[in-house]
Amino acid sequence: IPHDEDIPKGDTVRCLTMLGHFGFECLPHQLVNRSIQQGFSFNILCVGETGIGKSTLIDTLFNTNLKDKKSSHFYSNVGLKIQTYELQESNVQLKLTVVKTVGYGDQINKEASYQPVVDYVDAQFEAYLQEELKIKRSFIDYHDSRIHVCLYFISPTGHSLKSLDLLTMKNIDSKVNIVPLIAKADTISKNDLQKFKCKIMSELVSNGIQIYQFPTHDETTAQVNSSMNGQLPFAVVGSMDEVKVGKRMVRGRQYPWGVLQVENENHCDFVKLRDMLLCINMEDLKEQTHIQHYERYRCCRLKKMGFIDVGPDNKPLSFQEIYEAKRQKFYDHCQREEEELKQKFMQRVKEKETTFKESEKELQEKFEHLKRVQQEETMKLEEERRQLEEEIIDFYKMKAVSETLQTQVCTNIKKE
Ligand code: GTP
Q1: Nearest to residue 168, comparing CAs of 46, 270, 282, 75?
Q2: Where is the Septin-type G domain (predicted)?
Q3: Are the CB atoms for 172 and 144 separated by under 8 Å?
Q4: Is the CB of 54 under 6 A from ligand 1?
């Protein structure tokens, strides 16, 4: 029986000291077992110019050979290549989805370069939101494709960020956890690298770009995470080549002057990236995606759909009330539209009626006019006919007279 310590905490919660074994101390083990059974998933978005080393780095991270063929530099649009893999390390299964840009930075139009990335990230949020809004949800077998981390590959120019880098990062920093990387860091000297890192960070700050910060609220990881936050962007080198160093075979890149060992922390930040991403902060990346980025997307979308938490009087509104209010608003809107349509219809009928009447009047006048003209024509013709008939009569008369005269002349000649 719990012993009441009689220490009131707040109004209703009291602190009790347990005087026996209950078993809920095993709760964390239950969670671990369930998670292992379900397996884990992790979605990485790699954004970077063509041939910057995205595939090689992913291969190096997961010690796999996921790369297929090289991309062309001549795509007219940026595309995204999505590949999902099932990986296993001891008894832990990981469903890894890698989304890579194809043709990024190869177009003149910068907006066309980052927009497909923004659209893809949003589309994954939308798919999750639609699943959430279903009456019958099935999150158990739902493949959550929301992007947990964006590895942004910066060209090792040693100079500064490109305007496309700033534009893209600015457009996605509120949607995804960005971890900036200096790609192919073996092509830049140690001194230049340090200056380049500082330059990149100051450019990100002055442009108000938020990159992912390794969390420092958990005391077990606070120290390493805060030290790693100070080393961003990570300068990475990728390679799947096995190179001989002394008696050991290591993964690295062989040069005429020596070997760059990928997993040597003095040579590059690859191990730091792998530890931060996979060993220490994968869960935080997933959590931030859900509670920060997805939450923001969901909030905007629901607001756009017309949902609000409190009414104008600052009182909380239930889903039912909002739904009813929206339904009423929609109904009123339909009624108004119907009324407007009716009015418009009546107006048009009236206008048509007036036009018809005017046309009828015009036709009537035309008909009357034509009738008059025709009557006048008929009268004129009648007159002409009458005159003609008179002329015919006169002609016959004259003809008869002339015939009589001719007969008399003939008779007189015979007598003579
Ligand atoms: P696309 O998918 O075709 O856009 O290329 P990608 O960004 O995936 O680049 P990929 O990994 O295919 O690497 C392109 C070339 O760069 C290959 O020849 C790699 O060997 C080389 N490469 C990759 N990583 C590094 C690196 O860290 N340093 C150097 N020097 N070369 C690298």
Answers
A1: 46
A2: 38-304
A3: no
A4: yes
What is the chain's length?
416
DSSP H helix total and E strand total for the chain? 10, 11
- Tell me, in angstroms, the distance from the centre of ligand 1 to residue 53's CA: 3
Q: Are 122 and 101 in contact (CB under 8 A)?
A: no
DSSP 378-401: HHHHHHHHHHHHHHHHHHHHHHHH
* Long-range Cβ pairs for the range 78-87 (8 Å, 24+): 78/102, 78/103, 78/104, 78/106, 78/107, 78/112, 78/113, 78/114, 78/115, 78/116, 78/117, 79/103, 79/116, 80/116, 80/117, 80/120, 87/62
Q: Which residues pair with 84 in a beta bridge?
A: 97
Asked whether 272 and 228 are in contact (CB, 8 A), the reply is yes
Q: Which residue(s) pair with 277 in the sheet?
A: none
ipTM greater than cut 0.95: yes
Q: At what angle do helices 295-304 and 110-133 cross, to 10 degrees?
A: 80
Express each pLDDT in 385-402 by its tens digit: 999 999 999 999 999 999
* SS3 label, residue 310: strand
The model's pTM is 0.75
Half-sphere exposure in the Cβ direction for 93 (13 Å, CA): 11
Two tokens at 13? 């919660």
CB 187 within 8 A of CB 161: no
Nearest to 78 by CA among 44, 45, 114: 114
Q: Is 51 in the pocket of ligand 1 (CB under 6 A)?
A: yes
Q: Which of 15, 16, 13 has the alpha carbon at shortest distance from 3?
A: 16
Cβ of 184 less than 6 Å from ligand 1 = yes
CB of residue 56 inside a 6 A radius of ligand 1: yes
**Interatomic CA distance for residues 327 and 407, integer angstroms:** 116
Question: Smallest Cα–Cα separation from 101: which of 161, 172, 157?
Answer: 172
**pLDDT tens-place string over residues 195-242:** 999 999 999 999 999 999 999 988 888 889 999 999 889 999 998 888
- Categorise residue 15: left if φ over 0, alpha if ψ from -120 to 50, beta otherwise: beta
pLDDT digits 0-9 by tens, 19-56: 777 788 888 999 999 888 888 999 999 999 988 999 99
